[in-house]
Write a structure and sequence with these properties.
Blueprint lengths: L1 H15 L1 H4 L2 H6 L10 E2 L5 E4 L1 E7 L2 E12 L8 E5 L7 E3 H10 L11 E9 L2 E11 L16 E5 L8 E5 L4 E5 L4 H4 L5 E2 L1 E3 L2 E8 L2 E7 L8 E2 L2 H7 L7 E7 L2 E9 L3 E4 L2 E4 L2 E6 L3 H9 L2 E5 L7 E6 L4 E6 L2
Parallel strand pairs: 5-9, 6-8, 15-22, 16-21
Antiparallel strand pairs: 1-8, 2-11, 3-4, 4-5, 6-9, 7-8, 10-11, 10-23, 12-24, 13-14, 14-15, 14-19, 16-22, 17-18, 18-21, 19-20, 23-24
Helix pairs in contact: 1-7
Length: about 325
């Protein structure tokens, strides 16, 4: 089963491709390096982070929760930057164009370059120092820093799974707060009913019950566009009777795909909580055989921020347990 689940990550990218096409920022975050740089060195005490949402227009409709951003500060630079928090990214990275502009204006804010990486990079989150011994640089389709617009939200990179390795992550969506801690906060621990999950290849796979079937969902905090991305049969079964779908054109590398989105009044059971599903999506243009193989493995698809938007999601990556407190 472990081998099959590990293989699923490759199938998910090929068959469901949402990880690569949710947004240009998120797509760049998935182009991970073949070599593994050093891990992040976090402070010993907890990080209590106020995050912000970045909105975007998707197929002519405004999506206020397109990306979950964490404010970061660089040494010697007065400007607040942002990095997208993305559990779909194995490692954190910085965008080359942004780094070049920062280095030109504030050279002491960045560590030295080495083979498309920045070495010994210091930055702070929630007033506490973090060290990236090596952090990869990736070319992004966007522009450099707009220094003239002081209100501009400048996203300079991605914070990936290395930010929460062997840590407890508390995602308080209604309160727009993240906690990265060594243990589940006492006030939450007594309220949670913890459930085991799988952490394979730095992918978070959550067990759920969907349409009376027990399946696994890949959790990707870099995903906000699609509440539940699944196969066509499941999507149609969940859809509201006589509902007409909305379609979106999305690009996966050099291929154009069509996201087919249906409204639904169904629900999903996850960590003993029943959460409503408002929209279910499948992709046209992917291999049916890959999707079928994925479903046979017990994979139900992928979910992200939208499913938990009224909840507190707690993920203990060290003990591989999670729980949910919800206001749904």
């Amino acid at each position: 089963m472990i081998h099959q689940i590990y293989k699923f990550r490759q199938l998910l990218v090929a068959a469901l491709i949402a990880v690569a096409c949710l947004s240009s920022t998120h797509a760049d975050a998935q182009m991970m390096p073949s070599a593994t740089p050093g891990k992040l060195v976090l402070p010993a005490d907890d990080l209590n982070i106020d995050f912000v949402w970045q909105g975007d227009t998707l197929n002519g409709q405004w999506e206020p929760h397109a990306a979950l951003l964490i404010p970061v500060k660089l040494p010697g630079c007065p400007k607040v930057f942002y990095m997208q928090f993305d559990t779909g990214a194995r490692l954190s990275l910085l965008y080359t164009e942004k780094v070049n502009d920062i280095r030109a204006k504030y050279p002491k804010s960045l560590g030295p370059d080495s083979a498309s990486r920045v070495l010994n990079q210091q930055f702070s989150i929630a007033g506490k120092s973090i060290l990236a011994k090596e952090i990869v640089l990736r070319t992004q389709s966007g522009k450099g820093i707009n220094w003239k617009n002081k209100k501009a939200v400048e996203v300079i990179g991605t914070l990936g799974m290395d930010l929460i390795e062997n840590k407890v992550l508390v995602m308080n969506y209604p309160g727009k707060k993240l906690i990265i801690a060594n243990a589940i906060p006492a006030g939450l621990n007594s309220q949670l009913k913890l459930t085991e999950f799988m952490l394979i290849g730095n992918s978070i796979l959550l067990p759920v019950e969907l349409q009376q079937k027990k399946v696994m969902l890949y959790f990707d905090s870099g995903s906000s566009a699609y509440e539940l991305l699944t196969n066509k049969a499941t999507c149609l079964a969940l859809s509201t009777p006589n509902a007409k779908p909305v379609t979106q054109q999305v690009r996966s590398m050099d291929k154009m795909l069509t996201a087919v989105i249906y409204p639904t009044k169904d629900s999903i059971t996850i960590a003993s909580q029943k959460l409503p599903i408002r929209r279910a999506t499948y992709m046209e243009g992917v291999s049916n055989s890959q999707v079928e193989q994925m479903m046979k493995m017990g994979m139900g698809g992928m979910t992200g921020n939208q499913l938990f938007i009224n909840s507190i999601l707690v993920i203990d990556t060290k003990n591989k347990e999670f729980g949910i407190l919800t206001n749904n």
